[in-house]
Amino acid sequence: MADFLSFKCPYISKAQIICSVEDFRQKYWPDNSFPVNMERIIECGLKIDIVPERYVDQFNIDAFLNLGCSSIVVSPRQYMDNNDRYANRLRFSFAHEVGHYVLHKKIYEEMNFNNEYEYIDFIQGIDEKEYKFFEWQANNFAGNLLVPRYELSLEINKIMSNFEIDPVLSGILIENPVQVLEGISSSISKKFGVSDEVIIRRANDEKLWPPA
To answer: Can you give the pTM of this predicted structure?
Structure first.
């Protein structure tokens, strides 16, 4: 098994991740509609199984890509919820694991783990800095796949057109842009099928907020 502390996450720039996302989108979601149907991409496009396993909940995680990259193991409590309360959360979790599949498949194949428990021990035991890089790359892939910069900017501009003609709203935007973003994120999140937090993070990461 690989030594926990010796693990080094390969450097992948944001620009490289965006290129990977666009190549992936053209192949597996070419119509570019929203919300992105991650289950269809995973099961029909990538031919990867989605497998609910109860033990996932005990590790306080939503899902993970298995060692052979043949399935994504998911919390049945979330995946089989009759009210779809976790639909947006799982959409991002699935996109995150697909990010690992696209960006880190070689790492998964090279690691000599005997079972999923050893893999989880590895993730929990590697250097914190390396783990953050590893997860940042997958999160960045997921964010760009589910909420592309251009489409997000269009949604923000639609809402901002109301601010331009209303001096009261314009004043609020100038005085408290953070509060305004929190307020409009819920309406934008519905289009993309993600949480409000994802919209806020994407707007800030892409420097789309505050608007010029």
So the answer is: 0.92
Distance between CA atoms of residues 156 and 24, nearest Å: 25
The CA dihedral of 38, 43, 48, 54, to the nearest 10 degrees, is 80
Peptide bond into 148 cis (omega under 30): no
pLDDT tier at 1, thresholds 50, 70, 90: very low
How confident is the model over 78-96, as pLDDT tens digits? 999 999 999 999 999 999 9
d(CA 23, CA 149): 15
Q: What is the pLDDT of residue 170?
A: 81
Q: How many residues does the chain have?
A: 212
What is the DSSP-derived secondary structure letter of residue 176?
A: -
- Cβ contacts of 79 within 8 Å, gap of 6 or more: 50, 52, 86, 90
Of 4, 1, 36, nearest in space to 130 by CA: 4
Strand 63-65's sheet: what is its strand order? 49-52, 71-74, 63-65
Helix (H, G, I), strand (E, B) or coil at 72: strand
Q: Bridge-partner residues for 72, per DSSP?
A: 50, 65
Provide the 8-state DSSP code for 111.
-
209: region left, alpha or beta (phi > 0 left; psi from -120 to 50 alpha):
beta
